[in-house]
Every structure is written in C-alpha cells, then in structure tokens.
Amino acid sequence: MLPPLLVLDPLLENWLREDLGRGDRTTQAIFFGHAKIGQASWIAKEAGVIAGLPVAERVFQLLNPTIHFTPTVAEGEFCPKSKVIAEIEGSLDALLIGERVALNLAMRLSGIASATRQYVQKIADLSTRLVDTRKTTPGLRILEKYASGIGGAINHRLGLDDAIMIKDNHIQAAGSIEEAVRRVRQNMPYPLTIEVETSQLEEVNQALQQQVEIIMLDNMDLEMMQTAVEMIRNFNSKTKIEASGNITLDRIRNVAETGVDYISTSAPITRSTWLDISMRID
C-alpha cells in the first residue's frame, strides 16, 4: 500500500523542487497573469500494468489542490497500447509544471509492476510466492516496492530494521552461523524473526540446528536446492524456505517446483524498463 501523506508528500515536494528550480520559465511566461483552466489526457503508449496513478494525482494536487485527476483504469490493471488511463482537469500551468515529475513516477512504477506481473504469472498456480529485495533506487524504495506489490509480489523487508537477515558477510565477520545467531538472539527485540543465508548443505544443517525461522537457499543449483528443501521439511516443517540468486523468467518455475515457500529476486525492479506514457492537452 502507499505510504501516508506525511511520508509521501516530502518526497514529492523534493522532486518537484528539483525539477522546478527557480521556476518554469516556459510555462510561467506563457501564463503570466492569465490563469487558464484546461483538460489533459494520459495515454499508455505501450501495453502494460498501470501503477502509480495515486502518486501522480498527489503530484498535481500539491501544485494546485483544485485539480481533478480521474483515473479511467484501475491501479494494477493491464492496459493495451493507446488506452487513455487518466483524465485531468484544472489550471493548465499546474498541469504543465507537474507533468514530468508525475509521468516519470508513473512510468517507472508501471514498468516495475509490468515486469513483476510476468514473474508472478510464471508461478501463479503454485504455492510459492514472489518476493522483492532491498535492491532499489535510493529515495524511491518505498514507491518501487509499492509497484512490486501492485504487480503481485510480496514485499521483503523495506529496511534493515524490519527483520534479522544473517548473510554470508555477517557469518564471516562473526566466525560461524552458530555464533552469529547467538549474538543476534542476545540483542534482537521481540518479535523480529531470524533468516539465515546458506549456499551449501552443511550451512543449511547449521541453520537448522539453530532453529531459525527462515532459511535462504542462495545461488544453489536445482538438485542441491531440492535436497535442501527435503532436509528442512524433515527437520522442521514450520521453517520457511526462501530461494534467491539467478532467478530468471526461464528458471523461476523450476525453482518454485522444488517446494520453496518464497522466491526473492531484484530483477523486476533492477531490470525493468519504464512503461511509456504521454500527456496530451485537449
């Protein structure tokens, strides 16, 4: 879901200030002293999943609260090329000043949602769920993860304070999985969970002995992953299993069929392209 306005507005205001600078020389010169009401349409120039319309609406309302932004499609709907996805009415100077920031955000978020939907559809009939990661654009994480959710994925932790994840470098620094988990349990607040990253079967066994809640199988081949899943299920059926690393559209279904609970990948965010959307003044 979208963050509350208390969180969202400062982000949008900063991005508007970045674009506006000391003023929109073109728009303000044309409309200087002559406020004019007009209409505009947003058109999808390629097919894809639409995301970010509420964000775009807020961009325009920050510039002029009387602007009416009316989506003609639902958030998360797959739209064909050339479809009108929103109608806007209000002060033309605000529409033109906010156009680029609003479009940039909607195109970025729609691109992520579209790519995420492709991954989700590959495993839609299985119980495994797609999970995003913290590999996001600085400053945009909360919106990029929103778009990932619109596309059908589950958000992994949004920040380092969301959950305990003991990765390979933590284990190396602590000396062992056992020692890393021991130190974490001495200092972690209730009710956080512990996830441990493993890449070998011996590491899986060590994580099981520590009775952690989630075990990540990182960059394992399918044969090793299948063996690891069986080990974990036989030891404790309540332990959640996450697969990660080298997750592609071609491979994701094979990974899901090993029986893991979650598959995490950054690809829908880091490798997605923007969905082209344009604004036309009517």
From TrEMBL:
Instruction: Output the GO biological process annotations, alphabetical, semicolon-separated.
Output: NAD+ biosynthetic process; quinolinate catabolic process
Protein biosynthesis recorded as keyword: no
- Pfam families under this entry? QRPTase_C, QRPTase_N
Q: Name one GO molecular function term.
A: nicotinate-nucleotide diphosphorylase (carboxylating) activity
Q: What UniProt keywords are attached to this protein's entry? A: Glycosyltransferase, Pyridine nucleotide biosynthesis, Transferase
Name of this chain's protein: Probable nicotinate-nucleotide pyrophosphorylase [carboxylating]
Q: Residue limits of the Quinolinate phosphoribosyl transferase N-terminal domain?
A: 24-110
